[in-house]
Design goal:
The chain has 208 residues and is of the alpha/beta class. Helix content is 31%, strand content 20%. The chain has one domain: Aldolase class I (TIM Barrel). The protein has an 8-stranded parallel barrel, surrounded by 4 helices. A two-stranded antiparallel ribbon has the order 9-10. The longest helix is centred in the last third of the chain and has 23 residues, at 185-207. Belongs to the TrpF family. GO terms for molecular function: phosphoribosylanthranilate isomerase activity. Its EC number is 5.3.1.24.
Length: 208
């Protein structure tokens, strides 16, 4: 299982996340208080190790603009968080993460993507509202665990329980590692450490 820290806006935060063991960094190019410009994202992405994957988050953006930003910044994945169609996804030049709210009618067989991100109910923006939802709802979705990204209201207090319940491929966090709307190095380190320990505990319990 891997960890994605989303809403990266500074080089300092990126370094903290990478040093703590983050596997993915998310840059938001849609309306959000965590929105970043392509120029600033590129300055950060250029200094991120190759093995840490860089994800661009877009909402109802044109395929031309998405592809242009991906090329300029050096992104590895495109996360679609709006009403994008399968046809739009097929025209993009990076692997796709398609995000849904748990309230949506989710039919993964109709959308071409590499990962399915399930978020909490929508808040002020297209992302979740920062409140954890009932994870047992995911048990009935026809999504392969190795393609499932769990988001929405995760933090150091509940991430171990989330991993135990859902067994996702990737855990995605943003507001859960913030203090007063800013990324908190202490919370980032604690979250990733707790998540990785939970995965190890889960592996050990399976062996018994």
């Amino acid at each position: 299982m891997k960890v994605k820290i989303c809403g990266i806006t500074t080089m300092e935060t990126a370094r903290v996340a990478v040093d703590a063991g983050a596997d993915f960094l998310g840059f938001v190019f849609a309306d959000s208080r965590r929105k970043i410009s392509p120029i600033d994202a590129k300055q950060i992405a250029d200094q991120v190790p190759r093995e840490v994957k860089k994800v661009g988050v877009f909402v109802n953006e044109s395929p031309e603009t998405i592809n242009e930003i991906c090329q300029f910044v050096g992104l590895d994945f495109i996360q679609l968080h709006g009403d994008e169609t399968p046809e739009i996804a097929s025209s993009l030049n990076r692997p796709i993460i398609k995000a849904w709210s748990i309230q949506d009618k989710i039919n993964p067989t109709t959308f071409p993507c590499d990962y399915y991100l399930i978020d909490s109910p929508k808040g002020a923006y297209r992302g979740g509202n920062g409140i954890a939802f009932d994870w047992t709802l995911l048990h009935h979705l026809p999504i392969q665990k190795e393609k499932l990204i769990l988001a929405g209201g995760l933090n150091v207090e509940n991430v171990a329980a989330a991993i135990q319940s859902v067994h996702p491929a990737i855990i995605d966090v943003s507001s859960g590692v913030e203090t007063n709307g800013q990324k908190d190095p202490i919370k980032i380190n604690a979250f990733i450490k707790t998540a990785k320990q939970a995965v190890q505990t889960l592996k050990e319990s399976v062996k018994k």
